[in-house]
Amino acid sequence: MLKPPMLPSLNPAVQRLPPEMLCEIFNWTMVDGYFRRVYGWQTPTAPWRLTHVCQAWRDAARACPTLWSSIHIVAPDPAHDEYSAYLDDTDHGDDDEPDSEVKKPQKRRDSSVPVASAKCQSDAESEEESDESDDEEQFSTADYFPRAAVETQLQLSQSAPLDVVFDLGCFCSASHLCKLLRIVVRESNRWSALTLRWVYTPDIFASLAKIKGRLSQLESLKLLPRKGGLDYSYWPHVFADIFGDAPRLRCAALARHPPGIPPPFSIPHHQLTHVRLWGTSQFILNMLPIMANTLVDATLEADDDSDSEDAPISIELPHVKRLSLANDAEFQGLLVPRLASLTLPGLPGDIRFLPEILDRSQCHLKTLNLGRYCYYIKLDVLLPLLRLAPDLLHLRVEYARHISCFPKDLPHALAADSTICPRLVSIDIDATHGKARTLRKEYCELVEAFWNRTKEVRSLRSVRFIRHERHSGDPLGARVEKMRVEGLEIEYASEASLDEESKEESDED
């Protein structure tokens, strides 16, 4: 979040920035899909807060459509601490004072947020509207999702493509939410990305029905039903094909549907190039052949362990370059001849067939990503996989909370065998999901294993620490510094830089 400059010497320089440069800076400071969402209307983050710095920043932010192009209507989690303030009307204060006055939930809205209607109310009017929330009243969905906020974002986004998210729960007011849906549905011809995650009801179906035939700009679709939130008796037959006419659709994330019930939506599977499928292995195996000839990037997450003794189903994915696989027990028949990047999330599951898949595919693996739960993978499974990747150039490992993401004996095995990944050029150590500010010993040993095993001709050139800062208290800092002095390039990067790289890879496809 940007704040007003505190140093007087900086004021003239900041004030002289042209609006175009300010808008570019604003866009660079955004975290995609987070700071632009309408979430509980308590969040004091950009772009709303940017409009309160000064008049120049307000004008620049209001004139930048992309700042307002994410319309995220996200229902709060009832179990979340912030939301519990709205629902808990039995709070009796301190446990030691049973007679204390019962507190009623209050409407809450950040008074610093410039809520404006489609006619753009003035700041004074917005502040007066916010001040009304000081009265103690029962919480309602209309307070949590103010209609004026959605209308303002739609207006200020002008003609920019929209990223739309409906993440709703059964505890929300259906009538108010349907009003919001109808407002956003009017702009469905601008939707470039759509996420549906909620409990489905007839009213919601009726609100969504009008998007059929108006999704000419839709490029990404996520259908994520909440557990236990589907009642297929509500599905009108004509509703099933509302996504059938989406000529630009290329990316999709599809969750499982209840066994024995056909998929509720019909989408143009033959167009998809990037897909994420999770659910039962049977659901995934049924979906893959339909899109096999166009897929470039596939994430497969089976959540069941099958004991079937049937022969594996052979499925060739001739164009897949990137594959993420959490459990290969049912996918041992995969053939991916052009596979270049493999991701192992490391969720509990069986990946003992991966070496066989790689060997049969005769692919040239360039990138391997080990997720933060890969400590489930045993060394006798991981080493054969690495030996089948002599052309591996990039290795990425993630922090886990309390343990290394790879088998603890892996660094020693790599140090003892220089034939494993002899061409490795770079290592990324991703601490995005970890809280430790110091480098774990296992990760330092992993880098040293590649750096020290062939001092004459070193292939390793760079190591990048993601979301891990230099820290004077790091006991392993001296070992990292020693490798830097010897010629290893050390970089400290942000998560945003990875997002840019991922976007560039997708654009290349």
Automatic annotation (TrEMBL):
Residues 100-111 have a biased composition (Basic and acidic residues). Residues 124-138 have a biased composition (Acidic residues). Residues 82-138 are annotated as: Disordered. This is F-box domain-containing protein. The lineage of its organism: Eukaryota, Fungi, Dikarya, Basidiomycota, Agaricomycotina.
